[in-house]
């Protein structure tokens, strides 16, 4: 099947639509792109590796833009351990995912639903007091966990977001750090997924790459909407959406067709 044949299929535009929604949420609310995209693509019939690969490709422009925009706020020395820890534990997550593929799609939807619920509840309930330094223990826990979760379900962002919020950094430094962590793991993440799961993850990646002009336009709209509605209002809407998606994942045995 040629790439033009792939583009002509309805499932292709379903994938593009989900990517647009996740990128819009990420641009408007500042987080949760992966938490939206991965579970929705599972409900659309894609596997977790396919969802992850398309997500990683779709976020390349946004993360490049973020690193370039906030480069003056970056501390390269502070990114060595976090970036290395994420990369070291990412293959372990993918290896676990390969084992999990023997599970039924219903069970996988439940697992992803639990991951979305835990990440959302942690974001809602965890309110660290910002400080200049955080105990090293948390770094040793957060970044390996982030890499593992990135490889497992494509949701490595929440632990890092909570870690960043525990620091008294300004917004530019926070966003620059997060964009850098995401960017560092993009190429290795795609490579590991292709290595473990082969050619079946290539079509979603190519579709995501072809959709990048559309996703850039969606990013621009999301930034405008985020500015107009305000961060707190969007945060509440996003959290409600994520809780609903997490609960839907848990209820997969009753919501999935027989």
Automatic annotation (TrEMBL):
<dbReference type="InterPro" id="IPR002781">
    <property type="entry name" value="TM_pro_TauE-like"/>
</dbReference>
<keyword id="KW-0812">Transmembrane</keyword>
<keyword id="KW-0472">Membrane</keyword>
<dbReference type="InterPro" id="IPR052017">
    <property type="entry name" value="TSUP"/>
</dbReference>
<keyword id="KW-1133">Transmembrane helix</keyword>
<feature type="transmembrane region" description="Helical">
    <location>
        <begin position="106"/>
        <end position="126"/>
    </location>
</feature>
<feature type="transmembrane region" description="Helical">
    <location>
        <begin position="237"/>
        <end position="255"/>
    </location>
</feature>
<dbReference type="GO" id="GO:0005886">
    <property type="term" value="C:plasma membrane"/>
</dbReference>
<feature type="transmembrane region" description="Helical">
    <location>
        <begin position="12"/>
        <end position="43"/>
    </location>
</feature>
<dbReference type="Pfam" id="PF01925">
    <property type="entry name" value="TauE"/>
</dbReference>
<keyword id="KW-1003">Cell membrane</keyword>
<feature type="transmembrane region" description="Helical">
    <location>
        <begin position="204"/>
        <end position="225"/>
    </location>
</feature>
<feature type="transmembrane region" description="Helical">
    <location>
        <begin position="138"/>
        <end position="164"/>
    </location>
</feature>
<comment type="similarity">
    <text>Belongs to the 4-toluene sulfonate uptake permease (TSUP) (TC 2.A.102) family.</text>
</comment>
<protein>
    <recommendedName>
        <fullName>Probable membrane transporter protein</fullName>
    </recommendedName>
</protein>
<keyword id="KW-0813">Transport</keyword>
<feature type="transmembrane region" description="Helical">
    <location>
        <begin position="176"/>
        <end position="198"/>
    </location>
</feature>
């Amino acid at each position: 099947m040629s790439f033009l044949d792939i583009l002509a299929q309805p499932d292709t535009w379903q994938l593009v639509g989900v990517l647009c929604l996740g990128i819009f949420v990420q641009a408007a609310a500042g987080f949760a792109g992966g938490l939206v995209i991965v579970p929705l693509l599972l409900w659309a019939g894609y596997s977790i590796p396919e969802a992850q690969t398309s997500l990683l490709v779709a976020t390349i422009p946004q993360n490049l833009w973020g690193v370039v925009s906030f480069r003056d706020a970056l501390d390269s020395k502070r990114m060595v351990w976090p970036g290395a820890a994420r990369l070291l534990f990412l293959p372990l997550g993918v290896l676990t995912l390969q084992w999990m593929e023997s599970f039924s799609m219903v069970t996988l939807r439940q697992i992803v639903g639990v991951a979305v619920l835990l990440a959302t509840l942690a974001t809602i309930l965890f309110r660290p007091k910002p400080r200049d330094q955080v105990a090293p223990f948390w770094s040793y826990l957060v970044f390996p966990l982030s890499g593992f979760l990135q490889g497992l379900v494509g949701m490595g962002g929440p632990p890092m977001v909570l870690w960043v919020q525990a620091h008294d950094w300004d917004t530019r430094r926070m966003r620059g750090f997060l964009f850098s962590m995401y960017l560092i793991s993009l190429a290795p993440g795609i490579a590991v997924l292709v290595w473990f799961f082969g050619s079946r993850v290539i079509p979603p990646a190519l579709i995501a790459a072809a959709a990048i002009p559309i996703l850039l336009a969606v990013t621009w709209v999301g930034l405008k909407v985020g500015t107009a509605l305000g961060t707190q209002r969007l945060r509440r809407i996003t959290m409600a959406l994520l809780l609903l998606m997490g609960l839907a994942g848990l209820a997969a045995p009753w919501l999935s067709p027989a």
